Amino acid sequence: MSSFRIATNVGALNAYNALAKLNAQTEKAQLRLATQKRINSVADDTSGFNIGKSLEAKVSLMKAAQKNVGSAKDLLATAEGQLVAIRDMITDIKAKIADSGNAAADLNALQNDIKAISDEIGNAISNTKFNDSVLLGTTAATGFTFQTGVTTSETLSIDYADNVASNYNTSEAEINALSSSSARADFTNLETNLDTFESTIEDALGKVGNYLQRLDAKEDFLTVAIANSEASVSRLFDADMAMEQLNATKAQIGGQVATSMLAQLNAAPQNILGLFR
Length: 277
Prior knowledge:
mainly alpha, CATH 1.20.1330.10, 2 domains, two-stranded antiparallel ribbon, two-stranded antiparallel sheet
């Protein structure tokens, strides 16, 4: 009986609502195709949006931590290179000490050579830096701390140069005690101090190697964690382009049909005019 009412065309209103719904579906699918995103506002998926944003934040923090790990490795690599050089210079000094055991040796010349090498070791300890941080001097004994995770509590404290500077100072004092009148025994006493200093350098190199191994492990973990987290973000936010294209096409076809039906239903009350002829 409602088809005979002209004041309110209920059928046309229902068709209009159906068309509006199909148009909204088309727009949503087309927006997802345009942005390549499944979630374009929090209303699309509230829980998914919150989880995804939390994961994105953690990915950013893990990438920052990954950079910190890289900086720590660069710092250690710089220290390692200079420690190896110092160890080689210690070997050079020991070679000079061995030369002093030659009865025909010029002890004064050997003394000058040893002091020159010692000065270079001192320069290396004082001036080896990474971004203005002294790596081998007295201040390096306090160590360096790097954040290697997503929170400030996830850190790695690096301490490898505890006694490098102090043991060098002891050896340097022994070297400076050499004079033009120094005898073979003076060179022999110096060798004992050098052994202690060399042992300190070897310990420092061992610690550097251990820290580099730990940093490699942390870097591997962060790389995997970042990849997995980004995959989860992708599943939450990225649109299935093939499916959205199907949805858009389906909604467009449905909209065309609904438009046609709306036109027919909108014209239906005109049939009543036949009663007034």
